[in-house]
Amino acid sequence: MSQHFSRRRFLASTAVAAAGLASGLRPGFAAEPPARNGRHHFKLSLAAYSFNKLLPRGWPKPGKSEAAMQLSDVVDLAAEWNLDGVELTSYYFPNPVSPEYLRAIQAQCFRLGLDISGTAIGNDFCLVDGPAREFELEMTRQWIDHAASIGAPVIRIFAGKVPNGDTEAAALDRCVVGINESLKYAAEKGVALAIENHGGITSTPEQLLSIVRRVDPSPWFGINFDSGNFRTEDPYGDLEKIAPYAINAQIKVAIAPNGQKEQADLARIVGILKAANYRGYIALEYEENEDPKTVIPRYLDELRSLLA
Question: pLDDT (tens digit, 9 = 90+) per residue, 294-304?
Answer without folding.
Answer: 999 999 999 99
